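Write out this protein's structure.
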Amino acid sequence: MTQPKIEITAEAVRELLREQHPDLADRPVTFGARGWDSQLWRLGDDLAVRLPWATDSADALLRKEHAWVPGLAPQLPLPVPVPQRLGEPSDRFARHWTVTTWVPGDPADRAPVTRGAEAAGALAAFLTALHRPAPEGAPAGRGRGGPLAEHAEGFARALAEATELGLVPDPDAARAVWEDAAAAPVWTGPALWLHGDLHPANVLTAEGTICGVIDFGDLCAGDPACDLAAPWILLPDGAADDFHRAYGAALRRARGWALLRALGGLLIGEAGRLGRPGGQPTWAPPAAASLRRLVATAHR
């Protein structure tokens, strides 16, 4: 669900800081980015303020990050935004918000990976470190980390819509990838920590390789295949094999998750091209490249 979009300004952010964290209130505040759930405002050189913007779920996602990410971050080989302060609802702003560390870099949908082998190694190291058994009480995913079969209807709808829009050159090959992924054995291991949302806008790059991972709002425990879709989505041609050698697994189920992400990215990109709400035109090129790479594996 979405709420009416909240108008947030730099001065409003400063007032919140003065009210609850006055020791930070004199730092420069500049706009950073606007995502599905939250807005990001840079706070000085090394911090950022994240505030819910348009969805009902944003508060819970920020509180989840605040509860779990500080314990995970020291284990991870790439920089991630680590929550430092939690802002409470008040008369000035009636929702939770957070102060986190700032992670430098450019989103991969705007600055794609070009050094494939190096980025594959960085991504494999990150996911190897993250994919550890989660403790009892770890959050469940919002449709992430569970059986791929639960998404069969969503896949069929997305494929039909993207095909009708002319975004999928070979729907039969895409369907073959999905059917193979859905037929793969289900995950029987322990529920592992997952990022849950490794699309190009949540991965940062610098000088052609991956330099950070952001937005842990979908952090959850489950089947690692959800995250192992990432090499198909993020890396250039040929680099997925480098990733699988470094990580030690090439899961059939991961191709199904990657196909879901590619179709979603195509539809979101097309909505952006048409100027529709929620559209992101920069999502289309990586999604199209991912679909092309996945379809090439249809008969492998």
